[in-house]
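Supplementary Text 2. Reproducibility record for the structural model of the 351-residue chain.

All settings were left at their defaults, and a single model was retained for analysis rather than an ensemble. We include the record here because the model underlies the residue-level annotations in Supplementary Table 4.
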Amino acid sequence: MNNKMYNVLIVDDDQGIREALIELMQPEGYRVSEAATAKEALEKVRTQKFDLILLDIQLPDIEGTKLLAHFQNIMPDSIKIMITGNSTVENTLEALNNGANSYFRKPFNPQDLLETIENKLQERERRERITGKRLEEWVRLRLRRSQSIEYEEFENKASDVLGIFGLNKTQAKIYVALNVLGAASASEVASLTKIRREEVYRTMPDLEKKGLVTSKFENPKRFAAIEPRISLENLADKRIKALEEETIELGLKKGELIAQLENASFRIDEEKSIESLSERDNIQKRLMQLTQKAKRQIEVATLSEDLEAPFLKHLNAALSKTEVKTRLIIDGLELLKKEQDLDNADQLKLS
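Retained model, structure tokens:
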């Protein structure tokens, strides 16, 4: 930490938390004040300037996110960090939209908190030093550096991993870009990612719903990525839940399919064999052969002049000794019909 002294306000109704934060920060050179309620905190910020405010999201007299909005109106340039033991995507987004610079869940790593505080304060100082033309030059330089080969490799690798979390390529590239750029307009994101500005605008609402991005109400409108430590944890929880539901659904479908396959039963008819005979002797000879060899069904369609009565009696006697289903149609009339096993039928049609 540099030698500059920073004024810090800790707002938490838990005395143990306040004391622990004071013990953590005073040795680092911070001048620390404390408040147990929103009313007490508002009285302090109206009479003293604070560089940093650590704020619990649940207070006895007002919701922490509402108090944060008051702080943003009174001290818009101060660094505000939310601390909570019971966070949701909704209150995380509300806090960030109301001006929070970062967000920590209890219990948190003290060293991570100190590093975040130092980084945020240094970033604020750099921002205050950069104005006008220098700001434009700084943005251009930052964009040029981001567009290097190293960034493209990083973007591709990070986007592939984000795909596991359910993001498509466009969503992943925009989220990665916002993490690199900080608060940025759609045009700046488009310049870095090579994605059309209109597509960037269309994608932002989806990223906000996923808890990855928040919008800043400025002109032009600017967007910022929610810290990966927070957003990816929430996204991972949702993805795990979705996978669990998919696993259950897959198990149910598997059971249904197994039962269907094991109980499947269909009648599959073989293709009919059709044989055309012209001479009477050939017809009678072939019919007698079929009564001995056919296994399923015989269908005969012919003219009366081709079959004589004695032969028909002989044929009928031969067929009565078989398991063959027979249909004999002469001059369009069915004269001989023997119903047998319909599932075991070979078919011969003679004409």
